[in-house]
Design goal:
With about 200 residues, the protein is α+β, with helices and mostly antiparallel strands. It has 7 helices and 5 strands.
């Protein structure tokens, strides 16, 4: 998928908005030994994502004003397995009247982190219908890291930019992703993406 400089600039401006807190969520679906297992797992992950987005009981999604979702695949050389995961960038409005160093904000962010982790882990495991190898990572993105995180999110590759892979493994990942849309936008990000697409 091609990402124009205009689109990157627009999303970066939104993520840096002083009224928003930015979060990373990573949804892991487990490990895959070979191409067949990886394709099956990726298909299952996309089905689970549709379940989460379409669910009526999804307050853990609605708490964010916007969500960007991207599929990445890591390869663990030590274990010899592929590890697909969804990388989410989410924005949430801060409570008015709180400064960055306000202890109440710190407590609020920690409470949100714990609640979000529990809700997403439960929802993700339920949607995947898997009891093992399911993992969720959740973290607040500091202002100075936003551009770096967004840059890795807007890469044109399907594999993780942090892992060096040989051509054979890259081909396995590309074939396993099939016809899935690797990137999706929700909430205000969906409107922003549509706006940029129309302008182009």
């Amino acid at each position: 998928m091609y990402f124009s400089k205009n689109k990157k600039s627009l999303f970066l401006k939104k993520l840096r908005h002083e009224g928003f807190s930015v979060y990373e969520i990573k949804l892991y679906g487990g490990d895959a030994d070979d191409e067949a297992d990886l394709k099956w797992l990726i298909d299952r992950m996309f089905s689970a994502w549709r379940t989460i987005i379409c669910s009526r009981n999804r307050g853990y999604v609605r708490q964010f004003r916007g969500i960007m979702r991207r599929l990445f695949v890591e390869f663990d050389k030590a274990a010899g397995v592929y590890r697909p995961y969804f990388h989410l960038l989410c924005i949430r409005e801060r409570n008015p009247g709180m400064s960055d160093d306000d202890w109440r904000l710190m407590l609020g962010e920690e409470k949100l982190r714990v609640q979000t982790y529990i809700k997403w882990l439960s929802a993700w495991a339920s949607a995947l219908k898997l009891c093992t190898d399911v993992r969720v990572d959740f973290s607040l993105v500091e202002l100075e890291r936003i551009e770096t995180v967004l840059g890795s999110f807007f890469t044109n590759e399907k594999y993780s930019a942090f892992v060096l892979l040989d051509d054979m493994k890259r081909q396995v990942i590309r074939r396993s992703c099939g016809v899935h849309h690797l990137v999706s936008f929700h909430g205000i990000f969906k409107e922003m993406n549509r706006q940029v697409s129309v302008e182009r």
